[in-house]
Amino acid sequence: MTEPTPAPDVAGGGSRTATVTSPSAAHVGTSSAARTPAGTNGHHVDSELVRTNGHAAPAPVGRPAHPASESRTADDVEAGIIALWHTYGESRRQALRDRLVLHYAPLVKYVAGRVGTGLPAHVDVADLIQSGIFGLVDAIEKFEPERGLKFETYAMQRIRGAILDDLRSQDWVPRSVRSRARDVERALERLGGRLQRTPTDRELAAELKIGLGELRELYAQLQLTSVVALDELIAAGRNTGGAGSSLAESLPDEGAEDPIATLVDQDSRRQLADAIAQLAERDRVVVTLYYFENLTLAEIGKVLGVTESRVCQLHTRAVLRLRTKLNEQLEA
What we know:
Elements: E1 3-8, E2 15-20, H1 23-30, E3 36-37, E4 44-45, E5 49-52, E6 55-58, H2 69-91, H3 94-116, H4 125-142, H5 151-170, H6 175-195, H7 201-208, H8 212-222, E7 233-234, H9 236-240, E8 245-246, H10 259-277, H11 281-292, H12 297-304, H13 308-331
Antiparallel strand pairs: 1-2, 3-4, 5-6, 7-8
Helix pairs in contact: 3-4, 3-5, 4-5, 6-7, 10-13, 11-13, 12-13
């Protein structure tokens, strides 16, 4: 005869109903390795029986997951990669190579991040990753698994080499100049830490064991190593997240007209026109024909019916009167 028997829950916070069919069934249950919480002391007992009507029944509890399941999954992945390497070594199929590239792609991002930490800010990490992918492909094609070496160690060197080769091919500055630039930076750091201030050129030259003139020549060479992105935001807009303005917008336009010079020129023309209007009629005609109509003194003499020398006298008198008028306007 069966009867329901209350038994503690797995977490110990409630109860559920267990069914005991016979003493023999209960005896079978006692041989299992069931575990259940034992009070508040956090320890477990191997088997805890619930007595009901003289029969012993095991307290049903949950069984933990097998701890080796994750390791078996990792072993399966490793075995699959080994098999993939073996198959690729025999067939050299591009599809198999692409699967290996996808599996080892995180190595490229890791190496590119390490290399990018010592580069200027204008160098994009995405460009480094693109160069590293070529290095990874080359490493996969040239790797020989039968030698027993670890592919990750070999690939990281090839990826780093591919990134550095691409950077050097795009660099317009000689490697010797780059090396001198690093020497100057290290010397500045040493002197700054020792003197607790910005060192002078003479102190820096002494630290580098070169002359002051050679240091200034080195400065001129190091100017080529500094690159600034024209689309980079400047001023407060870059820090506050506002619209800001780009560096390109701050560069002067050599072909643009100076607004101040334009205003001054317009004002000077107005003052000159007022001064010309105040001249005598013959002086005004001489100035107009000579400066605006581009006639010679002889041609102006024919128009006025006077000699060339007389026109020269009229021109000189008109210029003196204009100069006097303009000086009076400036002083006023």
